[in-house]
Design brief:
- 39% of the residues lie in helices and 16% in strands.
- The chain folds into 2 domains: 167 residues, Rossmann fold (3-Layer(aba) Sandwich); 167 residues, Rossmann fold (3-Layer(aba) Sandwich).
- The chain has 376 residues and is α/β, with parallel strands linked by helices.
- The longest helix has 28 residues.
- Helix 8 links the parallel strand 7 and strand 8.
- It starts with a helix and ends with a helix.
- It has a 6-stranded parallel β-sheet, with helices on both faces. A 6-stranded parallel β-sheet has the order 9-8-7-10-11-12, sandwiched between helices.
Length: 376
Amino acid sequence: MLKFIFKTVPKAIERGIKKCFFSTLALIIKKKKVPAPDESYKKILIVLNEGALGDFIAKVALIETLKASFPKAALDVLVVRKTNKLVLDNNTSIRRIYFWETDHRHKIFFNAGLIRLALSLRKEKYDLTVTTTNDNLRFAFFCMLTGAKRSVGFTNNQLKLNQSDIFLTDTFLESGLHFVEKHKKLGAYIAGTFAVEKNPAMLLTPDELKYADDFWDRSGVLPADILLGVHPFYGPHIEKGYSAEKFKEVFELIKFSYPRLKLCIFWGHTELEGMESIKKLARGNIIIEDVDFRRLAALLRRLNLFICCNTGTSHLASLSDIPVILLCEKTLFWQFDPWGTKNAVLRTDTLYCSDITPDTVARKAVEMLKKYYPEK
């Protein structure tokens, strides 16, 4: 009981002090809310906060929408996670990428570095800065410090003032939107009458595409083959995945309808615990072992269908415009479902997607293969 009190009370006091401080600050700053403009922007800075791969891919929709809406604008981006920065490589929509590595161990130095960077960017004289969080003080403050004429972000409740709203000129309500859709709509809100909504995009290099072609050639894949990709695990949370044994049963059921079906098993470096079951499933099949996600995106383009749990790989597959079946438990919000038109979601009423029967998965897989590849 004492441990609970000593842990909870200081946090409650800290929250109270923060609320009083920022409420007072709001009265001093008095940021004027502005509507969506009817004039073009010349210089834009998008602040992409830290996030998992799937979340970050969704944010690229904002970049593409703003560039399509303001094609003559110089568009710069701030990224704070090295792996996420790779998603933006070769993106012709971006003029310049600023990078500041996240440091959770030394937050004071990380925040001080961000402040220095923001002040150094004032010379750029940005017309617009955009942050992609609904209540992140450091990035909203960063936007204000750049001196941009307009600073925009998300809000999840228009009736309640978030602390970060203090530093923004206006906000867009994100509630009730899919995580890709909300970034497209944020860009459309900012652009007003100039709005041209776009989906996320990742431009692969000729070398990356050649790597994929060579891999499939070495694996003996022919043009007439139907490739089923599966990702059995859920990062380090093996218990939340769909077992390799069940995927083997799914594969055998689908193969009755598609004799030329080949199974491709994907796994990552955080999933070593399940490697023994993967090795059993891999016999006679194709295994893709822990490749970097740009090469992974190139490999996914050849698949005819991809089945997985809720991981960043499902969003990479959506990005590659291939059919996706997501297996998920009841606690997963629909906002994180695969996006696009070629996807299906199988949900369970339990806490584990492994409770979905192989027969259910196989029936949905055959249905989607017939729909998208009738000639096969």
